[in-house]
Structure formats: C-alpha cells, structure tokens
C-alpha cells in the first residue's frame, strides 16, 4: 500500500478514523478503516459500487455511529463539529426543492449556524452570484448542484464532504463545479469527495484513497498509485511475427495481443524498447505510462484475489 499521509506536527487532523467498523445486518460495510486527513488537504475517495464510500461519509458526518473504533473531526465527535458548522456536506439524495430564491435558501441555512459565511461570499465561491434572485425550483441540474454546494458552504465549514458531487453533470457543469471547489480549497479548507471518475480524482485531489470491501487498500497521489501497480505499456505492431520471446525481454511482466498489436506491460520501458529495437520489432511503437484505471483495477482485483 502506498502511504503518503503528510502530518503537520502538532496539528489535530481534520478527519481521523481509527479501526472503524460498520455492519448493516449481515453486511460488513466497513471492516476497520484507519485514515487521517490533515487540514487543507483535498482528498478523493475512490471505490466500486458498494465499496463503503457512502458509509465512510455517513460516519464522518455523525449520521451513523461505528460499531467499533472511533471517528473524530478536529479531535471531537462528528456531531459536535457538525453542530458548530465546522463541516459542510453535499450528499447524494435529492430533497424536495422549496419555492424560494437561491439567496433566500442560502441565507436561511446560514442563519442556523453560529459563525456563518457571508451569503454573498458563499454564492461567489459556488459561482452562482448571477442566479441569486432565481427560484431554486426553476434551475437546471448543474445549477442546482452548485446551489447545493453554496448551501454546504453556508455554515463557513473548515471541512466539506461531497458524495459524488458531479454525478449526472455534463462536461461544462463539471468544469464549473470543480472550479468552485478549488476556490474553496484555496482558502486552506479541507475537502473530501467520493467519485467513480478516476480522472476527476487525479485532476482535483492532492491524495486518493482507494476503498474496497470496506477497507482502504491504497493511499497516495495519482502518480504514486500508478507507480505502485508498476510500469508502463509498450505496444508494437506484430507485422506478421509471433509473440514468442517477448515475455522474456527485460522488464516485461506480461504480453497481451489485440489484433495485430502486442501490448507489453513492463517495469523498465527503456530496456524493453532497446531490446525490441535489437529484434527489429519497433514498428508502430507506442510507450505510455500505466493509467489510473489500470492502477484502480489492479488494486481492487488484488483484494478480490486475497479474499
Ligand atoms: N442502510 C444500509 N442497510 C443495509 N446495507 C447497507 C446500508 N448502507 C450500506 N449498506 C451496504 O454496505 C455496503 C457499502 O455500501 P456504501 O453505500 O457505503 O457503498 P458505496 O461505496 O458508497 O457504493 P456506491 O458507489 O454504489 O454508492 C454495501 O454492501 C451496501 O449494500
């Protein structure tokens, strides 16, 4: 497992899970989760359907209690941090949308917190200043999502938790949403978001946690996760030759044939390419680093095999 949990000496972690277990009936949704998130980090939680992402988030927000272990926000139980407005959340489930304007809705939520964010600022950070006087039940899906983001910001939280925030958004709305999230993160605040989009995790998080079957199976930057599964992909046109001997070339871990092309997974792409050149087999040469998709599949598959 790749570990890069940067700790700031003396600072309380924004989020900490110690041996958190959560069972629903016979399902062990979380099987002992340990994690620390420091103030100012933007962290992506990545996992397949049913891996335990929403359960992690529900414990973090105090919506559920762990059966074993502890969950703390700034060293305190989650309910305390939530009541103090230190945590803002954007969850998956939709709510009945009231017939009020965007400004009225955000102001209403802000008034419920002890030290709210000025409403104009929440609207600006969410990129919806120009929608302030529009009714919330007459907005597009992407606009509604950003209103929900402004609502999450209303209490002026130090930590924001976003459960699949861009599900069902089109490309443009996605870009706008991430720009808003980054404006908030630049204030030094902490962000935890869950996603199925590996490229979003790679592009917008400082750190990626991969969860599988209720356990954190990897923790690092996108680069580190890619490196941890090893190597690069070298592809060539076979041009009529066979694949014999290719798997014995330096660095090569596996050889896969797709049509007329051979794809070699290698830990040492330079040595592999030199050896291919010596064989005169570099027609249509292509060298690419392992993708985050490869890393994700390898990390979650390893656990499946071990189970
Ligand atoms: N309230 C509940 N009652 C029973 N089982 C539950 C409940 N909540 C979650 N589970 C189960 O716990 C496991 C983890 O679910 P969780 O919702 O945390 O996964 P997830 O990673 O968020 O998945 P998805 O990507 O599909 O949203 C699953 O097997 C799920 O069926």
UniProtKB/TrEMBL annotation:
One record GO biological process: response to antibiotic
Q: Does the keyword Transport apply?
A: yes
The entry lists its GO molecular-function terms as: ATP binding; ATP hydrolysis activity
GO cellular component terms given for this protein: plasma membrane
Q: Which InterPro entries match?
A: AAA+_ATPase (IPR003593), ABC_transporter-like_ATP-bd (IPR003439), ABC_transporter_ATP-binding (IPR050763), DrrA1/2-like_C (IPR025302), P-loop_NTPase (IPR027417)
> What Gene3D superfamilies does the record point to?
P-loop containing nucleotide triphosphate hydrolases
Membrane topology designation: Peripheral membrane protein
Source organism's superkingdom? Bacteria
Q: Which SUPFAM superfamilies match?
A: P-loop containing nucleoside triphosphate hydrolases (SSF52540)
Cellular location of this protein?
Cell membrane
Keywords noted in UniProt: Antibiotic resistance, ATP-binding, Nucleotide-binding, Transport
Secretion signal: which residues? Answer: none
Q: What is its main location?
A: membrane
Ranges for domain ABC transporter come to 15-238
For this protein, the record's PANTHER family field holds: ABC TRANSPORTER ATP-BINDING PROTEIN
The entry's protein name is ABC transporter ATP-binding protein
């Amino acid at each position: 497992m790749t570990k890069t949990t940067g700790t700031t000496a003396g600072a309380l972690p924004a989020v900490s899970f110690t041996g958190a277990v959560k069972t629903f009936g016979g399902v062990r949704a979380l099987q002992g989760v340990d994690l620390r998130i420091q103030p100012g980090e933007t962290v992506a939680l990545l996992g397949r359907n049913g891996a335990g992402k929403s359960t992690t988030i529900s414990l973090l927000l105090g919506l559920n209690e762990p059966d074993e272990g502890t969950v703390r926000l700034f060293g305190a139980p989650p309910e305390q941090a939530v009541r103090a407005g230190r945590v803002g959340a954007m969850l998956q489930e939709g709510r009945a949308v009231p017939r009020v304007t965007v400004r009225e809705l955000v102001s209403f939520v802000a008034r419920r917190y002890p030290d709210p964010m000025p409403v104009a600022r929440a609207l600006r950070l969410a990129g919806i200043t120009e929608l302030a006087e529009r009714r919330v039940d007459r907005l597009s899906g992407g606009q509604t999502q950003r209103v929900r983001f402004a609502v999450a910001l209303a209490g002026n939280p130090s930590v924001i938790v976003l459960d699949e925030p861009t599900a069902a958004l089109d490309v443009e709305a996605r870009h706008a949403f991430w720009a808003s999230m980054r404006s908030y993160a630049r204030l030094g605040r902490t962000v935890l978001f869950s996603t199925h989009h590996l490229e979003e995790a790679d592009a917008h998080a400082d750190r990626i946690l991969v969860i599988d079957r209720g356990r954190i199976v990897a923790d690092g930057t996108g680069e580190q996760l890619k490196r941890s599964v090893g190597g690069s992909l070298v592809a060539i046109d076979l041009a009529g030759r066979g694949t014999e001997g290719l798997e014995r070339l330096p660095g090569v871990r596996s050889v896969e044939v797709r049509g007329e092309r051979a794809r070699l997974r290698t830990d040492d792409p330079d040595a592999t390419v030199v050896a291919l050149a010596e064989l005169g087999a570099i027609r249509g040469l292509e060298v690419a680093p392992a993708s985050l998709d490869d890393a994700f599949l390898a990390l979650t598959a390893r656990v499946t095999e071990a189970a």
